[in-house]
Design brief:
The chain is an alpha+beta fold. The protein has helices spanning 28-38, 42-46, and strands at 2-6, 20-24, 57-61, 64-65, 81-86.
Length: 92
């Protein structure tokens, strides 16, 4: 299944400066593995050593946080949109 993946600016150097790429898979984890096959090094920036998304990386499937779904095991379907968004910290 082909899905559109929105890539944050800090990771665009790994995707040949593309802000959107296409990946295939049945789950978020499959999509992340497919991205790694296409763009070496991207998964280690998104996931920890256990393959789970890092705490400071938010992944949305059709604008819904996968943490409130099935995490990296969340199923995807053809035409879905995934957004990878690094958390932003700040304060005064």
């Amino acid at each position: 299944m082909a899905v559109k993946v929105r890539v944050p600016t800090p990771l665009m150097k790994l995707t040949d400066n593309q802000s959107e790429v296409t990946a295939e898979g049945a789950t978020i984890n499959d999509i992340l593995n497919n991205l790694e096959n296409q763009f070496a090094g991207i998964k280690e920036r998104i996931c920890d050593e256990n393959g789970a998304p890092r705490r400071f990386i938010n992944i949305y499937l059709n604008e819904e946080d996968i943490r409130f779904l099935e995490g990296e095991n969340t199923p995807v379907k053809d035409g879905d949109e995934i957004s990878i968004i690094p958390a932003i910290a700040g304060g005064a």
